[in-house]
Amino acid sequence: MAPSATSSIFQPCCSHEDRPRDPSSPSSLFRIDMHTHIMPPRLPNLTSDDDDDEYAGDHDTNSRDRPQSQPIPYTWPTFRPAPDHAATGAVDMYVDGAFFRRVDRSCYDAEARVREMDAAGVDVQVLSTVPALFCYDAPATAMSGAVRLARALNDHVADVCAARPDRFVGLGTVPLQDCGAAVAELRRLMRMPGMVGVQIGTSVEQRFGAGVMMLDDERLEGFWRACEELDAAVFVHPLGYALTRENKGRWGRYWGSWLVGMPCETALAMHAVTSSGLLVRHPRLRLCFAHGGGAFPALLGRIQHGFDCRPDLVATKACGVTPTEHFRGEAPGSSLSSPNGSTAQPQLLGQIWIDSLMHDPDLMEYVLRKLGPDGTSRIVLGSDYPFPLGEVPVAGKMLTEDERLGRFMTWRERAKILAENAIRFLNLGPEFEKRFEDRWRGFESARQLPAGELSKDGSWEGWRHRDSAIDLDGEEHLDGNGDKKKFSSRDLDRSPRSVSAGSL
Fold this sequence. Notes:
Shape: globular
Helix content: 25-40%
């Protein structure tokens, strides 16, 4: 169907860093796209009963909870050439034996992917599998196949990363329906060069009467401990396709499972995480939620109110940490009793991150308010490449081109979201830090950005550049007393802290 995505497919070319670019253009800023999907050109044969795999069957910590009966038939995902495959390279993906979606060549052809990255100005992609390939619903009798599939997907991602370590880093996948098998595969993939973490779903749908595991399920505690031990970054992505299977009449119309269901799935996962004390129990765990945290930021006020008015239903496992404190990354009044009776003070120093895929500058402004003073430090660029519902073909287009962001974000803050935050979240190290800083210094110098910038009211937004503020001359805002006042950029010269830009 297509060549294998290894180093042999990449043709010699000039370094991406050496390509000519205008340092004064926002398109020159370093970009790391945290949210991209990839799949191998072909899948392994998972229909055999081969159990020779060293990871199959030896790590089933939950086997006592599963019925030991005759094998349950399970239909694995498959790829087939699209009708126009010869001309376009497109592939049709089948899930549950039915057509699921068409996938373009760039989803499996690494060389085509690099060409599109160059055209879009994306320096690095963080690769993760297509969520339809999680196969969390594979039953216990098919766990050998689930493990083999995860290994094949991870080997492919690692091969692509090894071929171009300057352009790709990887997130693996694990058979999360079995904690022992998931931990074993996590340990294996984290030893591979270029692999820095794992992508998981918002829940683990176990069919055939086994129910659903949410992320706070006690059966996943061993997985979270392993993520902490291995310093594995965790990217959480919803599974919209499962909703249509669950109730096609509700979710199958008007693309509802993707447009509404997926954000709701993410919100439900974040609700489970923030209500269960999960991050208090695992203080070194860091989670990044796709699609700007889905519907959770918009629901935060309602969830917080429920936490306050019905703590008997919401707060019993939260270790005293409110949903708002979780999202803001602070927990000043909380405590956690340890087994020996002592009390530890949890420091939720930014364990919850989100990507930038919101499609709306107004929503970005609101989310930054909810994230708190360091909000721009916990958002990473995410495009959902190569799928059409994402920010494609240009990842970061809103951050670099939408003038409305200038009202509440500086270029430095935008540059952080475009790349610097991902470097920190993924612990990519000094080489990536240098690439980011070199590009930023060139941009800063070419744009002649001023050293003194308009101060915010100290609540959330950070700093704003003088050139953005000048555009606001004559606009009304509320002063510190709540009175209307016309903004003048001359105020910047008299007192850099005299204007509350948060109200502009």
